[in-house]
């Protein structure tokens, strides 16, 4: 049976690069995807396929969308569809520079690079605001069930994952002007102890994204990492799931489309791009692209 790409379930690395590509040459698509499947190990290089590639191949991945589009959202949620997504994971910036060079050249026959975002682990896995990220993540077999498609789905889909990726840009001047209590109320947790408090306002992030609150429950596996470029910085939000439904439920609540209450995070940070992709599972040590007709 297929298994998820191992980098999805592993802890976030010390350094990473998120690279997005657009489809540039349909005639070279099949051979390029086969080269990707042969070289990607799913651990140091996690691969995601966008809707435009699926459609170019005349195939269908159930539930795959190009990116977030939340009806009734009270905030701007950008959608910038991508064709190919690579999450490069490593231990040093220099290492990943050379890995990125290799992969950009490998996929060049069919794909052109759109964005490259340099990310890193901060402290023990915190956002640059100092708050711990992914505190409600499932672990072990529960994490596998949350993050990947399980049987009895079609064999070629088992072990695959749906991924929501958003790059958030923080306004640190606004955040720093808030008192400690205001910051904690915005998140709904104490920054130092990481404990949630029951009397947090309904706009607190933990209230907006409480995975047990919706019916059915909306669980995702977060693997987000901070990013920086010059004096700009924020968080690359990355959520894996066995579908996109849970993430869309949470984003609907964050955006105010559910009940008119906007997540307090929007007071000091905002998404500047966002897309959905599908990560094939691994079969016999390679990416399983049978669902794409390959």
UniProtKB/TrEMBL annotation:
<dbReference type="GO" id="GO:0020037">
    <property type="term" value="F:heme binding"/>
</dbReference>
<dbReference type="GO" id="GO:0004601">
    <property type="term" value="F:peroxidase activity"/>
</dbReference>
<dbReference type="InterPro" id="IPR048328">
    <property type="entry name" value="Dyp_perox_C"/>
</dbReference>
<feature type="region of interest" description="Disordered">
    <location>
        <begin position="197"/>
        <end position="216"/>
    </location>
</feature>
<feature type="domain" description="Dyp-type peroxidase C-terminal">
    <location>
        <begin position="125"/>
        <end position="282"/>
    </location>
</feature>
<keyword id="KW-0408">Iron</keyword>
<dbReference type="GO" id="GO:0005829">
    <property type="term" value="C:cytosol"/>
</dbReference>
<keyword id="KW-0560">Oxidoreductase</keyword>
<dbReference type="InterPro" id="IPR006314">
    <property type="entry name" value="Dyp_peroxidase"/>
</dbReference>
<protein>
    <submittedName>
        <fullName>Putative iron-dependent peroxidase</fullName>
    </submittedName>
</protein>
<dbReference type="InterPro" id="IPR011008">
    <property type="entry name" value="Dimeric_a/b-barrel"/>
</dbReference>
<feature type="compositionally biased region" description="Basic and acidic residues">
    <location>
        <begin position="202"/>
        <end position="211"/>
    </location>
</feature>
<keyword id="KW-0575">Peroxidase</keyword>
<keyword id="KW-0479">Metal-binding</keyword>
<dbReference type="Pfam" id="PF20628">
    <property type="entry name" value="Dyp_perox_C"/>
</dbReference>
<dbReference type="GO" id="GO:0046872">
    <property type="term" value="F:metal ion binding"/>
</dbReference>
């Amino acid at each position: 049976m297929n298994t998820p790409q191992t980098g999805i379930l592993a802890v976030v690395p010390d350094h990473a690069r998120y690279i997005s590509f657009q489809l540039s040459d349909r005639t070279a698509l099949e051979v390029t995807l086969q080269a990707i499947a042969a070289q990607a190990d799913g651990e140091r290089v996690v691969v995601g396929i966008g809707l435009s590639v699926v459609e170019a191949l005349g195939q269908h991945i159930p539930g795959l969308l190009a990116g977030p589009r939340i009806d009734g959202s009270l905030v701007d949620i950008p959608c910038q569809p991508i064709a190919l997504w690579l999450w490069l994971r490593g231990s040093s910036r220099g290492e990943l520079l050379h890995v990125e060079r290799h992969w950009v050249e490998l996929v060049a026959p069919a794909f052109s690079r759109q964005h490259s975002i340099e990310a890193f682990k901060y402290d023990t896995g915190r956002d640059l605001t100092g708050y711990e990220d992914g505190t409600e993540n499932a672990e072990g077999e529960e994490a596998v069930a949350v993050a990947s498609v399980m049987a009895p789905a079609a064999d070629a889909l088992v072990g695959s994952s749906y991924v929501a990726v958003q790059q958030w840009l923080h306004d640190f001047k606004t955040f720093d002007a808030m008192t400690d209590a205001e910051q904690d109320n915005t998140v709904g947790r104490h920054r130092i102890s990481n404990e949630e408090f029951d009397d947090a306002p309904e706009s607190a992030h933990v209230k907006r994204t409480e995975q047990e609150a919706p019916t059915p429950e909306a669980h995702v596996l977060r693997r987000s990492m901070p990013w920086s470029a010059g004096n700009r910085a924020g968080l690359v939000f990355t959520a894996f799931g066995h579908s996109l439904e849970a993430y869309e439920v949470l984003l609907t609540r964050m955006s105010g489309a559910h009940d008119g209450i906007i997540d307090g995070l929007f007071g000091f940070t905002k998404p500047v791009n966002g897309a959905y992709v599908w990560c094939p599972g691994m079969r016999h040590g390679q990416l399983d692209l049978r669902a794409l007709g390959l």
